[in-house]
Write a structure and sequence with these properties.
Elements: H1 23-52, H2 56-66, H3 69-96, H4 103-128
Helix pairs in contact: 1-3, 3-4
Length: 129
């Protein structure tokens, strides 16, 4: 019982600007952020999709709004979030199956997520818009 009351003094680094995450850590955080962003934007995207299908006039107004630069940037961000979340999700499924869990392999698979998600986003952006 006496041993349980002894608190170990551990170093605490509360300055978030000095923390340097390895690439797999960055992929993990971006996977969570992209998933949360997609979840929060889903009602808006469904509403916009529904509004674009109501009539030819509503589709034309949707198209004119989607042509604005700030809206294009937001749509490009959502497209990247979807592609990154998809690619990172496949990586995490493989890690759950104990494939590539070694430190070196995990680093390489994290780099592959970025190497695939960014060009795939650009390809889809060119095809979709």
């Amino acid at each position: 019982m006496a041993e349980m009351s002894i608190k170990k003094k551990r170093p605490k680094n509360l300055d978030l600007t000095t923390i340097r995450l390895p690439l797999p850590g960055k992929v993990s955080i971006l996977h969570r952020v992209s998933g949360a962003g997609l979840f929060l934007c889903l009602p808006v995207m469904l509403w916009l999709f529904s509004a674009s299908l109501e009539s030819p006039e509503s589709y034309a107004s949707f198209q004119s709004v989607a042509g604005m630069l700030p809206v294009k940037v937001i749509l490009a961000g959502l497209l990247w979030a979807f592609v990154h979340h998809f690619c990172a999700g496949i990586r995490f499924l493989l890690l759950d199956m104990h494939i590539g869990i070694e430190k070196e392999a995990a680093g390489k698979s994290a780099a592959v997520v970025f190497a695939v998600s960014i060009p795939l986003t650009l390809i889809l952006w060119g095809v979709l818009l």
